[in-house]
Structures are given as C-alpha cells and as structure tokens.
Amino acid sequence: MAISQMLTIAAIATGAVAQLKTCSNNGTFSCQSSSKSPTCCFNYPGGALLQTQFWDTDPATGPDDSWTIHGLWPDNCDGTYQSSCDSSRQYTNITEILKSQDRSDLVTYMDKYWVSNSGSSESFWEHEWGKHGTCINTIKPSCYSDYSPQEEVGDFFQKVVDLFKTLDTYKALESAGITPDESKTYELSDIQSALAKIHGNATPYLGCDSDSLSEVWYFFNVAGNAIDGQYKATDTLSKTSCPSSGIKYLPKSSSN
Prior knowledge:
Elements: E1 48-54, E2 68-75, H1 94-100, H2 104-113, H3 121-131, H4 151-166, H5 169-175, E3 185-186, H6 188-196, E4 205-209, E5 212-223, E6 230-234, E7 247-248
Antiparallel strand pairs: 1-2, 1-5, 3-7, 4-5, 5-6
C-alpha cells in the first residue's frame, strides 16, 4: 500500500508547554527527504516514529476494554533502530520528574494505561525513556530555547499518551465486529483493515504470540520536531508475526 494520507495529531494541553525551538520546515517529512542531517526540526536517523501498544492477557494488564501503551519508538525508516543513545539521560525517577512538572494527572493516566506485565510501571517507563526516548534527536536538550532540566522527559511521555488517545485499538476492532473471545478466530486482513481506519488508511504492524493477537505498532513520519510537529500516518516497515488466518483475540479475563 502506498504512503497514506496525512493525519495531523492535535496537541492535548496538559502540564508544561514545550519550549522547543521553532521549526520552519514543517513541510519536510522524515523518511521522505534526501537530507541525511539530523536537526532540531528533522528526525534522523530515527525518522519514523511508532506508537506501540500491548494486548496482555497472561497476566492481564490494564482495563479489559482497552489496549495498553508500550511506547514511542524512533525507527531508521527501514525497520532498524538505535537504542539507549544517551546514558547521561537514562533517568531512574520518571514519576518524580513528571510530578515535579505538575504532570500528576499524566502519571495517574499512565498508571492505568501504561503498565508492565512483568515488573513495576516505573521501571517500564524508565526502560522506554532510556532505550527509545533518548534516541529521538529533535527533543535533545539543545533543541529547547529555554531548557529546564528533564523538560524533554515530560514532553515525551505526554506525547506518547496524546498519540495513544487518538488510536483506540479496542474500539476500532469492536466497530468491525472483532472482539475478544475464547474460541473465535479472525483474518489478518480484517484486523488490518479495521485498524487502518483510525490510522489514515495506513496499515499498522500486528504482532502475535502463538497465533494470539498481542501487539500493534502505528507508524508515522513527522515534519518538525517529535512533540509539536505534524504527524503523517504511514504503512508498517516491519513484517507481521501473525498468520494470515486463524488469529485468536483472547479476552483479558481468560487469564484470571
């Protein structure tokens, strides 16, 4: 499928306002330019940004009627990626940082929708920031016009949540008659079609664990910086791990 139509993500005003430097190249999308130089207004090499989600059933995490947040990952426009790019900013106090920025409501939301199935939420957030957030070049401290320590951390987590709120995977599947069930199975193409409707007609990546639906990754190209730039939905750069048919979508309650 060709690159899809533009999908602009509206900012949700919560917490501090980003003081990132103004970008004048909002018409230049990442992964779609001959430029190979990272700037505060051009995401490179991690030009594609992925809003990733989990469907955990064993053990179950989050509400029974919602997928949960995995993260926001920069991808090198080809399915490869950098990781853990700045050890000096691999913080171990994400909750404290967010609360110090008057983002307590954000923490409350994350406690419900951004949870780990194998450890504390705090350690999960630390991992996602350290491994992926530090590799987004357009939110480096040098990209702020009036930088406050750890300001980019709050902006990162707020942006992930804002994107997640625009991509309600559970409702999109439910609208297509695809609901969690112990015995029903579904076609890959039907699941992809249902999710493309909330993603600018672009096909997301679907992940399966033993033929059971477990992950979705929504790919974007971005013009400007990763926080207040313009997001455009694009097709997956990764091959699905799900079969073409016989996909299970187990209810979370099945693990209780």
